[in-house]
Each structure stands twice: as C-alpha cells, then as structure tokens.
Amino acid sequence: MNNLILQYPKIIKVEKALARSGLGFLLEDSPFRFASIFLPLYKGAATLPPDKALSAFMSGTADSIFKLFVCELGWKHSAPEVIFSSSPNSAMLYKQREELRRIFQYWVKADSSYQGAYRSFVQRSDILLDKRLYASEIEAVYDAAKHLPHVLHSEIDWSLCDKEKLAETFPSETDFVVIPDSKGQLNLAKLWGELFFQKSILVSNWQDIAQQKDNVMFHHFSLMHKITARLKNYAVRFLLYHEAPRNYAQYRLTQALAHLAQTCPQIKLNQVYSAELSQHYEEHSAPDITADYRAAMQQTEYGQILPSPLELPSATEVSYLLKPKNYSRDKRFANSSLVVVWGLALLIYLLLKYF
After folding, report:
1. pTM of the entire structure?
2. Which one is predicted more confidently, 193 or 292?
C-alpha cells in the first residue's frame, strides 16, 4: 500500500497525459479512483472516436515506449502498431519503461484481465529497446515459414545489428504496399493461416507488406508465440459464428483477423481456411515415460543419467498429517507456558532491583 501511495504522482501524471491526448476512454476502466477527476477537465480533447484518436496519438510526437504503453492499455481497441525497427534508444526510455511497468503492475493487481496486456508490454518493450531481439523474432517467422511457397525472405546482418539498429535487407525490386495484388493477397492469407494454425504463431499489427512478384511477407509486425489450442478453437468459432472476444488473447486475434481482411480484401478467409476450420484442436503434451520404456533405457548408455523414480510412501503412512495436532503438549514448547514466562519476568525484575 505504501508503494502504491508513492506511485500516485506518476499514475496521476500518466492519466492526465492520456486525458489531454483525447484518450480518456482508456481511463473508463481505470482501477484508480482519481481517474474520473481528469475526464471532465479534458472533455474537449475527446473529439474523435476511439480508433481515430488512437491513430492520431500513434502518429504524434510521443515517445515509442509511451505509445507501446497506450497500445497495450487499450487492448480492447485496435491501435496502430509501434514500429520496432526505428525507435530511439536512451537511458531515459529505460527509466520510463520501468515507471510505466510499475504502473501497469498496479493496474493488473486491481483488474486481472490486464495480465496478458502487461506481459505483452514487458516483452514488446524489451524488443523495442534492443533491435537484436526483434531480429530474432523476424528469423523465427522465417524459420517457421521456410518450407512454404511464395514467402519473401529478408536477410539479417547480425554484424551491423545493435540495440538501436536493425540491419534487415530485402531482395531487389521489393515493393512495400498496404494491399498486395490478388495473387499476393492469397499467398499472404495462406502464410498467416499456416503460421497460426500449424506453427502456433500469431502475426498481428503489421505496418505494410513486402512483395516481390508473387512472394510476400509481413513487414514491421508483432508476434504472439505459444498460441494455445483454445485460441485456435476460438478462431474457428469467430470465423464461422462471429463469437465476440472476451479476453486479451481473443481481442488480439480478432484484431489481427480484421487487419488481415483489410489487407486482403479480395480473399474470403473462410474459404482459404476451410480445412483448418473443420478441425478441433487439442493441446499436445509429452507422452508419459512407461516403466517398460524406462527399463529399456536403463540398459543403454543413457541409463546413468536417468533419475530413479521416487519412492513414495503409502497414503496410510502419512494419514496422520491430516489430523490436527495440539502442539501445546509438545515438549519443545514446554518452556513457553505462562508460568515459565511470568517466573522469568519476576526473576529479571528482582535482579534489576536488588543487584
């Protein structure tokens, strides 16, 4: 509680900045009681609908860390992407990132639905402050899509990459377009579906599309790794039945699909993903090691590194742990009775008074 009180001035500063920028709608779900104070003060600034207000803010002069904070705080709204490849890097940005991270933590403690947005803010701010991390994200997509046709690959020059610079080179005659041609749209939709349904990678919020003839690739994108089978099943329900999103991951998915539909207006996603939409996805866990498999492995050279199975006691042997125990009768606590305590107190008093 004391730490939260110390953060109040910083929280108030951030909320005033949001209200002043016409983003007061982000404070409507604020867990802090004083957020509503600033909404009437800057009511005149809220002249644009939420999507246009976010677009205007993202194209403004605010620093990239604060833009990313706004993007994640407004996860229920479709905010434009923060460009990871061109943000400045300085000690002030690191300091501001830590301040915004702490504010986000208190937000999560008051409203657990922001937990996913907080984790994404931490991960994406790390990438924003170190372009080498973003380069590894790009390579992860290329590794996942290397077997697919019509994928435009770029090259990462790691010798030129550092915290502030991303050295990415595309092939010659590459165009960067908002909407590819009809063939490029089909290849792009297939690429997104392969990454999501087969590789468990959600590509979202790209700035534009790199295209060379029929080869395409998302440009200046963000990633969400470890897509669960539950989210894939929700994607099926959303595309087939338009089920409304309920949590952070579902909102980000629906926003990515809406962005994909805008990028590929000539493509019907339900037709492209007809095979994927007819499946039910389940989590794949590692198979249990059976006793026969373990015994067979013990006969090989790997048997020495296999841990021995734990010898667990039977339930009857530890059943006494379920019964309450009167510790006052334990000999270890015999000297803590009131008689002993008062006796020692009287002895100390007599020693201090007469000696």
Report:
1. 0.74
2. 193
